[in-house]
From TrEMBL:
TM region(s), chain numbering: 41-61, 81-104, 133-152, 158-182, 189-210, 249-271
Domain ABC transmembrane type-2, residue spans: 41-273
Lipid bilayer topology: Multi-pass membrane protein
GO molecular function per UniProt: ABC-type transporter activity
Organism name: Plantactinospora soyae
Subcellular location: Cell membrane; Membrane
Pfam families named in the record: ABC2_membrane
GO process terms (BP): response to antibiotic
A GO term from the CC aspect: ATP-binding cassette (ABC) transporter complex
InterPro entries per UniProt: ABC2_TM, ABC2_TM_bact-type, ABC_2_transport, Nod_factor_ABC_transporter
Full protein name: Transport permease protein
Similarity annotation: Belongs to the ABC-2 integral membrane protein family.
Keywords: Antibiotic resistance, Cell membrane, Membrane, Transmembrane, Transmembrane helix, Transport
Length: 275
């Protein structure tokens, strides 16, 4: 483990302000995407899980609800209910695991070398998190195209807003994942213990896989405190073409709050990692 002492980064003129931040984000994002471009099969392999869920869990979901499927999932049908949730699940697993890449950079010393560059601290978090949105966008296009013959109806404007909403949420979750990686960098096995312990309750309490309307009252009350539940509801509304609704507004509130909290925690953790 490298213990390189990092001093304050050299800030050059023109790198301050929003334009400098966007430029730094682009640099970090490009750097993070290079391995992906050299190994595109990881993106293809990443599509296996969502397609398996769609192919096996979707029909099972309809069968388990029986005659209540129409009233529980809505008149739009099971795929309008399930496909947006699968995209959220893909983003959830992808961005929450980004901290594992940082653990590898700690081992190689790459993280310390990044800290002595003039790149801003938020750009290191945002650029890495947005990198996860690139394969997600590609996977979303393929998943939607695969599901259209099965009855899924694409509302393009809502789908684009939905992907933007996922990107904002992914920035926050990715930043929290990096903060976790920094906190447990001397016991890296703890990263997966904490990540797996948190991610599955959040997923189940979001109504992502099963409707919460049929669950007990305490579960619905817990879901009200879960920002992921608001995001899932908003994605379903957006992919059904309902852009200007209160459900979508609450989804944006959940995503923006997650992004702000994630960046605040992540930047603070990254600053401490340089001490």
């Amino acid at each position: 483990m490298s213990t390189l002492s990092v001093t304050s980064p050299i800030r050059s003129a023109g790198r301050t302000g929003p334009l400098g931040l966007f430029r730094d984000i682009g640099i970090v994002m490009t750097r993070e995407l290079r391995p992906l471009l050299h190994d595109p099969f990881s993106v293809i392999f990443g599509m296996v899980q969502p397609l398996v869920f769609l192919g096996l869990f979707g029909p099972l979901l309809v069968g388990s609800l029986g005659g209540q499927a129409g009233t529980t999932l809505g008149d739009a049908g099971v795929w309008q209910w399930f496909v947006p949730a699968i995209l959220v699940m893909t983003a959830l697993f992808g961005t929450s695991a980004t901290g594992a890449n940082l653990l590898f950079e700690f081992q190689t010393g790459a993280h310390e070398r990044m800290l002595v560059t003039p790149l801003s601290r938020p750009s290191l978090l945002i650029g890495r998190a947005l990198k996860e949105m690139v394969p997600l966008a590609g996977q979303a296009v393929v998943i939607v195209l695969v599901m259209i013959p099965f009855g899924f109806r694409l509302h393009l404007a809502g789908a684009l807003v939905g992907l933007a909403l996922l990107a904002v949420f992914g920035i926050g979750l990715g930043a929290l994942s990096y903060a976790l990686a920094i906190a447990v960098r001397r016991q890296d096995w703890m990263f997966w213990v904490v990540q797996q312990t948190l991610i599955f309750p959040l997923m189940l309490l979001s109504g992502m896989l099963l409707p919460l309307e049929t669950g007990p009252g305490w579960m619905r009350a817990a879901a009200d405190l879960n920002p992921l539940a608001y995001l899932v509801d908003a994605e379903r509304a957006l992919f059904n073409g309902q852009i200007g609704t209160a459900t979508v507004l609450w989804g944006w509130v959940a995503a923006v709050v997650t992004a702000l909290v994630g960046l605040a925690v992540g930047v603070r953790a990254m600053a401490r990692s340089a001490e």
